[in-house]
Amino acid sequence: MNNLRFRRTALALATAAVLPFALTACSDSDSAKDTAAGPSADASTAASSPASDASGAMTMDSPFGPACSGVPKEGAGSFDGMAKDPVATAASNNPALSTLVAAVKQAGLVDTLNNAKDITVFAPTNDAFAKIPKADLDKVLADKATLTKILTYHVVGEKLTPKQLENGSFATLETGKVTTAGSGESYKVNGTSNVVCGNVPTANATVYIVDTVLMPK
To answer: Residue 122 pairs with which residues in a beta bridge?
Structure first.
């Protein structure tokens, strides 16, 4: 009988001693799981934020303006296609700039524009040239010196961002100056010519397509 009581007492003491250690181990295990889950969730959130920011930045750098919808979605005349070619070549693949391209060829400026580095070109559309009376336009096209003066007035010797156009004045290759003003997706050059498709990248230039031919003083 005494032996039986001794065994029961020993078993009770052993159980009482082990139970706190078991509870502590369980608590530590749960805590470790919580700790492991915490940093993982934070890391996931942190990883997704830069991607979102990068995407927003890319959107801000995209071409803009109502005439951009008329640019082909693929091929040499698309935005991706033009980005691979120097500016005169890129313009030749855009049907809306065929008059400008003909004028550039007439003035012998194809190589000059294609070989220039980091320039901005304000490119008048065919409709912009159509605003000029035909007799006057024919006269300009026949006068290489005057034509060269007008075309180089549309070229600035640096790549301009939309932000710079908000209130700017820039020297042109013709040695005159153009002024720009606007914000968002609405900009004017020299107060009269509207940017209808802006921030178009080519291999060596940024192009702003405009609806009115710019005339140097």
So the answer is: 208
